[in-house]
Design brief:
By secondary structure, the chain is mainly beta. The protein has one helix spanning 17-20; strands spanning 42-49, 54-59, 65-70, 75-80, 87-88, 93-94, 99-104, 110-115, 120-125, 132-133, 138-139, 144-149, 155-160, 165-170, 177-178, 183-184, 189-194, 200-205, 210-215, 222-223, 228-229, 234-239, 245-250, 255-260, 267-268, 273-274, 279-284, 290-295, 300-305, 312-313, 318-319, 324-329, 335-340, 345-351, 368-369. Strands 22, 23, 24, 25, 26 and 35 form a six-stranded antiparallel sheet that branches. Strands 2, 3, 4, 5 and 6 form a five-stranded antiparallel sheet that branches. Strands 7, 8, 9, 10 and 11 form a five-stranded antiparallel sheet that branches.
């Protein structure tokens, strides 16, 4: 699945002040359009009011619901994506303090929410009507923010941004429980993404400009090799559907680093790709031919063609709301859902020229954002 990095809610100091300037409100999924889409075609079809400081968004495998974490409201809003236009349904779901990342199980029956403010993970029953939090929140490490679930749904991985570790939750247990000791990674882990085959987990270390690699087949799972050096302040990470490359956003460099995962060891290739804005969320189109990056300070989404090396921008950036962070795109590639941290909304973008991709069983492509909140 896919994940943001560190900016800042009103009560915390943002790491990116030097880059953002005087941004009053700053703040780790997931996903795309087919290669036939023209960047000139996108149209905003809805701007949906949700809770305070919406941070991340995930779409159910059937594509019928989008779940949005509201960092300042301590809740999750549910959007009916089948409505015309899409709209919030029901009351917000109460979760823990300062919910950040969210991941939905492959079968769509559970959603997992990282609660940054109280060191826990909430579990939502998405089959209930209305959806509800079930059981006691699961205690993890300090400052959880990024979250991802394995392709088989059996494990949830959570980045603990202030204890420099990753917690692993066994979702097959009843109730789900943390298994083993936390996995030590770099300083300030935020976004997290899992390879399509589930064999490796990739974690952005926002304080040291690197990506840690975790071998999930080891007993217990452990970080392997030296961390991969990327741009400073890495915020989000997305892995191509074929597992060959990872794309990492850098807030402070306003760019994207490309990692060749097929190399031994994995290594950055080429120069960072300029985004022209503070790069936070990142995700792929279902076929992997397009990459989408949220431009935090610009209030926009940039689209890149990944079929060429280096990737190149396609069309002009797409305007959304204030301070966009998370992004998710339905598996048919027709619509994008973007969380706007600065104005409490979700922008829904329609790609008029989109052609539904062949195959594709999930509700959205994979990508992730980590913490954009300073400690």
């Amino acid at each position: 699945m896919t994940v943001l990095d560190r900016l800042h809610p009103p009560r915390r100091r943002p790491r990116s002040v030097a880059v953002v300037g005087t941004v009053a409100l700053t703040l780790a999924l997931t996903l795309g359009v087919t290669s036939g889409v023209s960047a000139a075609d996108p149209v905003t079809v809805a701007t949906i009011d949700v809770g305070g400081s919406p941070y991340a968004v995930a779409i159910t495998p059937d594509g019928n619901r989008a779940y949005v974490t509201n960092y300042e409201s301590n809740s999750v809003s549910v959007i009916d994506t089948t409505a015309n236009p899409p709209a919030v349904v029901g009351a917000p779901i109460d979760v823990g303090t300062n919910p950040g990342g969210i991941a939905i199980a492959p079968d769509g029956r559970r959603a997992y929410v990282a609660n940054n403010g109280d060191n826990s993970v909430s579990v939502l029953d998405t089959t209930a009507n209305p959806p509800v939090a079930v059981g006691a929140p699961i205690t993890v490490g300090s400052g959880p923010i990024g979250i991802a679930i394995s392709p088989d749904g059996g494990r949830v991985y959570v980045t603990n941004s202030t204890s420099n570790s990753v917690s692993v939750i066994d979702t097959t247990a009843n109730p789900p429980v943390v298994v083993g000791a936390p996995i030590t990674v770099g300083s300030g882990p935020s976004a997290i993404a899992i390879a399509p085959d589930g064999g490796r987990v990739y974690v952005t270390n926002s304080n040291v400009g690197s990506v840690s690699v975790i071998d999930t087949s080891a007993t217990p799972p452990a970080a392997v090799g030296a961390p991969i050096t990327v741009g400073s302040g890495p915020s989000g990470i997305a892995i191509a559907p074929d597992g060959g490359r990872a794309y990492v956003t850098s807030q402070t460099e306003a760019a994207v680093s490309v990692i060749d995962l097929s190399a031994t060891p994995p290594a950055v290739i080429g120069a960072p790709v300029d985004v022209g804005a503070i790069a936070i969320g990142v995700t792929f189109a279902p076929d992997g031919n397009r990459l989408y990056v949220t431009g935090f300070d610009a209030g926009s989404i940039s689209v890149f063609d990944t079929t060429v090396t280096p990737p190149v921008a396609v069309g002009a950036p797409i305007g959304v709301g204030a301070l966009p962070t998370g992004i998710a795109i339905t598996s048919d590639g027709n619509r994008a859902y973007v969380t706007n941290l600065g104005d409490g909304t979700v922008t829904v973008i329609s790609f008029a020229a989109a052609t539904p991709p062949s195959g594709g069983s999930s509700g959205s492509s994979t990508g992730s954002i980590g913490s954009i909140f300073g400690s």
